[in-house]
Specification:
Elements: H1 3-8, E1 11-16, H2 42-50, E2 57-60, H3 72-82, H4 96-99, H5 105-111, E3 116-121, H6 125-132, H7 137-150, E4 154-160, H8 166-178, H9 181-184, E5 193-197, H10 235-244, E6 256-261, E7 267-269
Parallel strand pairs: 1-2, 1-6, 3-4, 4-5
Antiparallel strand pairs: 6-7
Length: 282
């Protein structure tokens, strides 16, 4: 089977960093990249590179902050138009930076079928602002929560857990309960969720190694909100498993190939951070 026949069996998702991101989050698995607007026509040129090889292509003009451009309505329609025999999904991602600055944005999210939006916290105000890399981020997240709920969109609070912020995350859980978010979202197309995790070992989060939390130190109040807690391994257990078991998992795509493309046209698989070592080509 030649490469064209093999590729035709799979769908392709292209996520392109066309506009950048307002945040510099310390957990970002993609890594911090410079912000720049890509040249006009770059989107069509990129899709045309892959069009001969794939029957179905989903095109996204972002891979960090969604809708980080003023003409986001037109941009979404263009993403749809550039996609081949498919319509890109909205997922649970939106720009909380834009939610609090643009009164037309949340109605737009409703129009395109968004039922829930994920909002990322790192603790309370000072800690969240520091981890997001932007003063006022925590207050914006609370304001975004209010605006989403008022418009029938369920907020989803995601919290990243470290040794230094574990007690703040407990307080964040209490805050979500004080705001009665579960009750306020009842009857929506999605429900409010609070969940915690430690993030991946990729990108910027690798630099937080000194404050990665130990399993035994995860506060008891947060365990019910930690998905897969029972199967969570300590670092010692991981090392012991590696010593006695030489089998390993090889990254590969199944039905859909996902490619991440930087604003300088470097191409990566979505397996890990977008660093020089992992670049496929330009």
């Amino acid at each position: 089977m030649n490469i064209r026949e093999k590729a035709a069996e799979k769908d392709l998702l292209l996520a392109v960093d066309m506009y950048g991101c307002p945040n510099r989050c310390r957990h970002c698995w993609l890594g911090h990249m410079p912000n720049r607007k890509m040249e006009d026509g770059a989107d069509e040129w990129i899709v045309d590179c892959f069009r001969p090889y794939f029957k179905r292509i989903s095109f996204y003009s972002w891979l960090r902050e969604p809708d980080f451009c003023d003409d986001y309505r037109e941009r979404w329609q263009r993403d749809i138009a550039l996609s081949v025999q498919t319509v890109p999904e909205r997922y649970e991602l939106a720009s909380f930076w834009r939610i609090v600055r643009d009164p037309e944005y949340v109605p737009f999210l409703k129009e395109v079928g968004v039922k829930a939006v994920q909002l990322t916290f790192f603790g309370l105000e000072e800690t969240t602002d520091r981890f997001v890399g932007r003063t006022g981020a925590f207050r914006e997240l609370l304001q975004a929560t209010k605006l989403l709920a008022a418009n029938g969109i369920a907020p989803r609070w995601q919290a990243f857990l470290y040794e230094e912020n574990k007690e703040e995350i407990v307080e964040l859980l209490k805050l979500s309960e004080e705001l009665h978010l579960k009750e306020r979202c009842r009857g929506f197309g999605a429900e409010f969720r609070f969940f915690v995790h430690t993030g991946s070992c990729d990108g910027e989060n690798r630099k937080q190694y000194d404050i990665w939390i130990r399993k035994k130190n995860i506060p008891e109040a947060l365990i019910p909100f930690y998905s897969g807690y029972e199967s969570l391994l300590t670092e010692r257990e991981c090392c012991e498993r590696l010593r006695r078991d030489v089998t390993h998992w090889v990254h590969h795509n199944e039905k859909e190939i996902v490619l991440l493309i930087s604003n300088t046209c470097d191409v990566f698989f979505n397996f890990t951070h977008m660093s020089r070592e992992w670049k496929i080509r330009n």
